[in-house]
Write a structure and sequence with these properties.
This protein is an alpha/beta fold. It folds into 4 domains: 14-175, Rossmann fold (3-Layer(aba) Sandwich), CATH 3.40.50; 196-362, P-loop containing nucleotide triphosphate hydrolases (Rossmann fold, 3-Layer(aba) Sandwich); 366-470, Helicase, Ruva Protein, domain 3, CATH 1.10.8; 482-608, no CATH class. It has 25 helices and 15 strands. The strands form 4 sheets. Strands 3-2-1-4-5-6 form a 6-stranded mixed beta sheet, with helices on both faces. A 5-stranded parallel beta sheet has the order 8-9-12-7-13. Strands 10-11 form a two-stranded antiparallel ribbon.
Length: 614
């Protein structure tokens, strides 16, 4: 490096300036150039630099015979202002064309800048007034990275007709940039929440704003169909996370392979693991991971997840070393995790870890004032899907009349809204399809009032039939004790399964426990031993061998058998003689004694309404 140096001063301030043809080297006006002008102003402000680094284009030195003379002239001008300063020339190999190309100029200037700074704590002034626009931008960005840097620029005051220097601390610039970014993020979040009606507007903006400033997980609570997945998508959009880095997982579908699916596995980790598998945790690195129905994860997998949240490290199934993954975690559930912790179905430490930011999502029945917006949202989605479909050829756009939309809004409470957003979505898609069918995919496609009334009439009929199936009506019009019966029966069955399995209960996945639950329900229903054994052998796909049946029960705990289950039911009945679940029975079920056919049918209908599992 060709350098000209003066004796080093004790002053540790540094000035960095780029030398360009139309700046510091401009004939007789050299003394008015940025480098000299800034040095002068820094002296006036009581901040004289002890070193001045001048980044000089070698191309100019080679092609201009006056290059050396101008260098000496500029150096002398700086020494007139800073007599004790060390002046260093840093040649760089950039052509005029390269200096205007950001991609070409950046690595060259970044290398020189790093050599000057070199982890120094010296106060650094960076002149961003010289060079091409690309060079000025690069110097500005490089200065922004350094906590001890200040941006200085040289302006000509047209009123005073004299040059002056403005010094801006980088911290101030960073603060201004943060404020701009915050405003843009708020505008983006507000726009996203306004454009997407599936999530409450105010709530969506609030969650996104929290996600921007926290490293803790976010827990979304809500019934099925309240928009938890869409809310997680909005969070990812608000944080600027690309779609390919948004990983959504329904934990209820993972089953026995949850650990492999979430954390991945190495080749040969278990039978069938023919190659390495990347899990969802690793896939979500630097992105967002949405774990829906997190309450269905096994306790062992919950512990593995807790480790990732604590230190960002995980280990693939069968691996010997840890790997790292850092992501935004959003969890969703429609269960009462607090109650599950009390029942030891969910780890208390994991629950406390993910509940820091908890947001409940309202069901549709509490968002009736937004029904019109939801209808429009789902109608837009329908039109977009239809137009992008290769199977359905139509250019028609389905609309809905204002009167039809008003009717939906005013009468929606009459429908069964247990599906929440899915119910509204299904309603809108059926109405839109009918409109397309009537118009044959051509011309005007508008959902009419007649179509809406006909659809509501059909849905109310289905709701009525469902009500009659789920609960009998007494002569005075009151509902029977079916729901109470179901709850009491489930409590007894759960108690029997817990007692039979003992310590294995909490370590056995719910998907496996439901098999034993179902066997207990069959016994509860009065089904005979031989019939149950036949059903089990058909399930096991084995011949009727006692050891096969014993092996099946041993999976859940020692000493479990049909006779024990039947005896346990009898014990519980003795403790609860007025139990509604047995109101239709003339006697307590005992081994070899089945209840009446009518009672069996009643209990079986009740069992059909209860899903397998706990």
């Amino acid at each position: 490096m060709d350098e000209s140096m003066e004796k080093t001063s004790e002053n540790t301030r540094i000035l960095i300036s780029y030398v360009s043809l139309k700046g510091d080297l401009c004939g007789s006006s050299v003394n008015d150039g940025p480098a000299v002008g800034i040095a002068t102003q820094l002296v006036v402000n009581g901040m004289p630099p002890g070193k001045v680094f001048l980044i000089w284009e070698t191309n100019y030195l080679r092609t201009n015979k006056k290059g050396d003379a101008e260098w000496r002239h500029l150096k002398e001008s700086i020494h007139n202002v800073l007599p004790n300063a060390e002046v260093v020339k840093l040649p760089i190999d950039l052509t005029d064309e390269d200096a205007s190309d950001f991609d070409k100029a950046f690595p060259t200037l970044a290398t020189v800048f790093a050599k000057i700074i070199n982890d120094s704590d010296d106060e650094v002034f960076v002149n961003v007034s010289s060079g091409t626009h690309a060079v000025q931008t690069i110097l500005f960005l490089l200065a922004m990275r350094e906590s001890n840097a200040r941006i200085v620029h040289f302006v000509h005051d047209l009123e005073r007709k004299e040059p002056r220097c403005l010094v801006t601390p980088v911290q101030n610039a960073r603060k201004e940039f943060r404020q701009i970014e915050e405003r843009e993020a708020e505008d983006k979040a507000e726009k996203a929440s306004q454009e997407d009606a599936t999530v409450e507007k105010d709530l969506a903006a609030k969650i996104i704003n929290v996600a921007k400033y926290t490293l803790d997980p976010i827990l979304l609570l809500g019934e099925t169909g309240t928009g938890k997945t869409r809310c997680a998508e909005l969070i990812a959009e608000g944080l600027g996370i690309p779609k390919q880095k948004f990983v959504a997982v329904n934990c209820a579908t993972l089953g026995d392979i949850a650990s492999s699916q979430l954390f991945g596995h190495v080749e040969g980790a278990f039978t069938g693991a023919s190659k390495e598998h990347i899990g969802f945790i690793q896939e979500a690195n630097d992105g967002l991971l949405f774990l829906d129905e997190i309450g269905t994860l096994e306790l062992k997998v919950q512990g593995m997840l807790l480790k990732v949240l604590d230190n960002g490290k995980f280990r693939k199934v069968g691996a010997e070393v840890d790997e790292e993954s850092h992501f935004v975690l959003v969890c969703g559930t429609n269960e009462n995790l607090e109650a599950n912790c009390a029942k030891e179905l969910f780890r208390r430490d994991l629950y406390e870890r993910i509940r820091t930011w908890t947001f409940p999502l309202k069901p549709v029945r509490e968002r009736l004032n937004e029904i019109g917006d939801l209808v429009e949202e789902f109608l837009r989605d329908f039109n977009a899907e239809i137009h992008s479909s290769k199977r359905i050829s139509t250019t028609a756009k389905v609309k809905i009349s204002s009167t039809a939309k008003k009717f939906i809004r005013e009468h929606i409470e009459k429908l069964d809204l247990t599906g929440n957003l899915r119910t509204i979505r299904g309603l809108v898609r059926r109405l839109a399809t009918h409109a397309l069918m009537e118009a044959a995919g051509l011309g005007k496609c508008e959902i009419s009032m007649e179509q809406v009334k006909a659809e509501f009439k059909e849905m109310e009929k289905l709701k009525s039939e469902q009500t009659n199936h789920n609960g009998r009506k007494t002569t005075n019009g009151s509902t029977s004790t079916t729901n109470q019966t179901t709850v009491e029966r489930d409590e007894i069955i759960d108690s029997i399964v817990r007692e039979a399995m003992g310590e294995k209960y909490n370590n056995t996945p719910p998907i496996k426990r439901c098999q034993l639950n179902y066997v207990v329900k069959l016994v509860f229903d009065g089904i005979g031993d031989s019939e149950i054994e036949k059903m089990l052998f058909d399930y096991l796909d084995k011949e009727r061998r006692p050891q096969a049946l014993k092996k099946f029960f041993n999976r859940f705990g020692p000493g479990i058998s049909l006779s024990r289950i039947r005896d346990d039911i009898g014990k519980h009945l003795a403790q609860k003689p007025d139990c509604n679940a047995y109101r239709d029975l003339n006697t307590t079920p005992r081994r070899g004694m089945a209840p009446s056919a009518q009672a069996r049918q009643t209990l079986r209908m009740n069992l059909e309404k209860v899903p397998l599992g706990n």
